[in-house]
């Protein structure tokens, strides 16, 4: 049986890994295997997502190293400064909302949802899945472009893979849902309600 790919970002009170695990529990309780792909829009949560997806190690100073130490990941200005002091040839600064003057360094890369999904091998994993569940803290009109949800849903649509979403707050109407070609959008915020929402989505999944 092909798995369902879970590519969600952080929720208001849950890290991406926690939300992903909750969805996986809901699916697996209904006998559906899951491929866990904790992700992000390129802001907070990126360090955890890339560290989980690529392997590596957290370092003192608040940053992490992946790619055998060739790439450092930081989410705060303090961690960025520490990462720039490492031997990494590239530093990913995943906190665009709090830009630091240090981010102008030519070694620094500001990621976005596309970067994160590419790094996690999303496309190949999505094509091997029977469906995708994406999501995050909110799904609002502003999320129709440039966010994890929109990027994941667009890629799924282009590959003919059904895509579903779970969000802590849903602020789009049926038209917005159609723009992203989302099969079903569920609203849930806590681990328990997210787990239940995922279990309820099983009835809408295509056959394995």
Kindly describe this structure.
This protein has two domains: 4-41 and 115-204, Glycerate kinase, domain 1 (Rossmann fold), CATH 3.40.50.10350; 46-111, no CATH class. It is globular, with a radius of gyration of 17 Å. A five-stranded parallel beta sheet has the order 2-1-8-9-10. The chain is an alpha/beta fold and 208 residues long. 35% of the residues lie in helices and 23% in strands. The mean pLDDT is 94. The chain starts with a strand and ends in a 7-residue tail after the last helix.
Distance between the termini: 5 Å
Low-confidence residue ranges? none
Give the CATH architecture of the largest domain: 3-Layer(aba) Sandwich
CATH topology of the largest domain: Rossmann fold
Overall form:
globular
Highest CATH level, the class of the largest domain? Alpha Beta
Report the radius of gyration as a whole number of Å.
17 Å
Number of domains: 2
Count of helical segments? 8
**Topology order in helix (H) and strand (E) letters:** EHEHEEEHEEHHEHEHEH
List the helices and strands and how they pair.
Blueprint: E1 4-8, H1 16-29, E2 34-36, H2 46-54, E3 57-59, E4 63-66, E5 71-74, H3 77-84, E6 90-93, E7 108-109, H4 113-119, H5 122-127, E8 131-139, H6 148-159, E9 163-170, H7 174-179, E10 182-187, H8 191-201
Helix pairs in contact: 1-8
